[in-house]
Each structure stands twice: as structure tokens, then as C-alpha cells.
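Example (one chain per record):
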Amino acid sequence: MSSAEPWGGGRVLRLQRFRGAVILWASVQLVFLLLVPRVRSVFSESVKSVQLGMGGPPGEGQRETGWRAVTRVLRSYGAGLGPVKSAMVWAVADVTNAVFPTDCRVCGAPMVALGKVRVCELCLMRAAEQAETDILCTRCGDALGMESARFAAGMGVTECSLCRMAPPEFERAVAFGTYDNEMREMLHLLKFGGQRRMAEHILGERLASAVLKLEACGKDLLVVPVPLFPARERQRGFNQARLLAEAAVKRLRKLRPEWRLRVLPGAMQRVRDTHALFTLNPSQRRRNLSGAFRIADKEVVRGREVLLIDDIMTTGATARECARVLKRAGAEKVWVATVAKAQPESVRAIERADVATWGASVSLVEPDSSRRVSF
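Predicted structure:
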């Protein structure tokens, strides 16, 4: 027993020292809470005061910046009582953000945590998945208006009027979220801001979540990104659809290791440089895209199920044309997955009913045309 007493006493002493260290560390965190936001506002792009409950960057969420800081401190303090590694990570994040302040690329608020991409937690939370309560067309994913939903329910159908009148040649199209606000800004950062890490660390994972909605698709899929015209790809430096496809497949291989997924970026080619699609209405897009794609080797897709990947689905003209070309080349089935879907709330139309028709005239509502280049 005598040999056990020193060991027990040493253990109590170590616990007391650890508890004291935790209390000291938590006190430092509270000091950071009061001082860091004031220091950060001097060096960051958002020059307003971001003390708790006061000011913040222009736009939505001004008063929420302080609460993000509160959440960070409480979470880091709780982590300190648990694994030491988590506590050290948050301590390093706090010091780093104080010495090297940076702003969220989406909302402009100061970042309060380390991240591989400069997007704050609030913006990531707001770029959420489409609500399950939304009534969507089971074919193209368009949101059905209230009257259209009642009509479809009364007729015992689940597709929008467009898909019933002019069925697309893809089986189903799914998207993670709606093309507006934070989601739109993140996609713009990828496409027009050259932020490739956005695809790898954020948007690719969301695309993978969308693919998981395709319960009926096969588990042996050829993954084909929608191609850009070669000159357009050289100008941009990359094809965003390919980056998203590769990131999504990487994620899916972890989530569904039994799936056999093969990315084929060269399977489909864009042989004609089309006009900027955002300037055209749906019927003009359809004519503009006719004959713009071809399959490099038909034997590669013959008899196979194809997963077509793109960043955004607006009117569905691109997905329809690509699916048509793939089916003509012998593909058994074509499925479509995108990061975002432009729903009626995100579209300003000259003539629009509850369900957009194939010939309606629409244009996307963009926040800053100076940052936009043609598709």
C-alpha cells in the first residue's frame, strides 16, 4: 500500500495542475474575446468595430458576428475540458486570427476560426440543403408553385408541366441547394474568382450529398463533367464541373466504397463555342446548345449509366442537350447532379407562371455583373 500512495498523490497533483491550466487558458480566451475583434477590425477588410453585439460588416448578419465569437469561445472552452488536442487547435486558431486577420470571402465578416477556405461558419450554414418540405418535380427538380402542386396532386403526377409535355432524356436531376445568396457567391468564387479550393473542400462535398439522393441509379457509373469549349477553359484555367466531379467522387468513395465511380472528363466534348447563356431565354438556350456537344468515343458510354455533373442547373437546357447526346451515343441511362438549382424565387421572368415553360423568357438575378464572365 505504501508504494501506491505516492502514485495516488502524484495523480491528484497532476489533475490539480491541469485544472488550473484550463482555468488560466479559459481566462485568456475571454481576454481574446474582448480584444481580438477590436484588433482584427483594424487590419481586416471590414473596418467597422466587431465587438460583441456592436456593428459588423455591411449586409445581413451584422449583429451575428459577435455571437459567432461567443460560440467560438464557449466551444473552445468546452474542448479544453475534454481532449487537449482540440483545446490546442482552438488556441492556435485564436492567436493566428489575431496576428493574421482575414475576412470571409462571402459576407466580409472577420473569420473567427481556421479553415482551408475563407468562408465563415455562418455562410456555410446558410448555404444549406434544399428543404425537404419544398415540393419539387421528381424529374428536373424544379420547385412547383402552390397551384401547380395542387394540380399535380389531383392528377396523381409528380412532375412539372414542362417535364410532362417535353420529357428530358435524363432519368432525374438533383441539386444540393438553391442558387441564391451564399451558395451563389461561393459558386462565383470558384468560377470567376479562381478559388479552386472551394470545389475541393466545400462544394464537392455538397455535390456528393446531392448524388446520394439518386437512390434508383446504378452503383457502377461513368461520371462525366459538362465540358467547356477549349478556348473558354484555357481562358479560365480550369473546368469547374470537372473540379466538382473529382471532389464529389473522392467524397463518395469514402461514403460508399462499394460504388464503382470513374470520372471521364474527356468523354464529352464541346465542339462549338456557344453564346453567354445567362443572356438568353430558355428557348434561345436550347437553339444555342443544339449541336454543341459530341461524344469522343461512343463505345465508352454504350450500355453504361452516366452521371452528368455541372455546377448550376438553371432552365435545364444544358442538361437536356447533354443527356440527348449521351443517349444517342448508346448510354443506357443518364442522371444529373449539380451543386445548385435556380428555382423560381431566384429567377426574374418577363412572363412566368407557377411552373416555367420551355419557351419562357428568364434571366438570372446576379449580384455583381462586373465579376461575371460568360459561361
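Caption: The CA atoms of residues 15 and 303 lie 66 Å apart.
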